[in-house]
Amino acid sequence: MGKTIVVYGSSTGTCEAIAEKIAEKVGAKAINVTDLNDAVLAENDNLLIGTSTWGAGELQDDWYDGVDLLKGASLAGKVVAVYGCGDSASYSDTFCSAMKELYDAAKAGGATLVGEVEIDGYTFDDSDAVVDNKFVGLALDDINEDDRTESRIDAWLEQIKGSLK
């Protein structure tokens, strides 16, 4: 497998902890999006990018500059998979919606996107991150469904490993 980086934006530490779990499982480093720059993008073939979702579906604050970086970068030849954290009970109508912003930014940069996840088994009302009845990436609710986090991560990594460079 080519060089892989796991990038996260986290306000409470939940998304950071998930990023570290993912990084450990793929043998990669996890970094905060505030440390993401052109050099990091250039030296990695695979980007696993994640955010938490806030309020009415907003992106985690640290990601705003990161989204601009992804949109402006040449990600052609890079493989990107998105993951996100949300609260399906308290924010059922915007569950993990911020993942869509990361997905769109990577797509605008020309990346190959992988890792869509079926919505079966999730309890929520709506999400901008659902396209054609699939999440654009791995949706996690480590608040209300923490007992499913590990198995969802493992299934997602198994799904995407053949697509990573």
UniProtKB/TrEMBL annotation:
Flavodoxin-like domain segment(s): 4-161
Coiled coil regions in record: none
GO molecular function: electron transfer activity; FMN binding
InterPro entries: Flavdoxin-like, Flavodoxin, Flavodoxin/NO_synth, Flavodoxin_lc, Flavoprotein-like_sf
Claim: Flavoprotein is one of the keywords in the record: yes
Keywords in alphabetical order: Electron transport, Flavoprotein, FMN, Transport
Swiss-Prot/TrEMBL cofactor(s): FMN
Superkingdom of this protein's organism: Bacteria
UniProt function note: Low-potential electron donor to a number of redox enzymes.
Family: Belongs to the flavodoxin family.
Protein's name according to its UniProt entry: Flavodoxin
Lineage, top ranks: Bacteria, Pseudomonadati, Bacteroidota, Bacteroidia, Bacteroidales
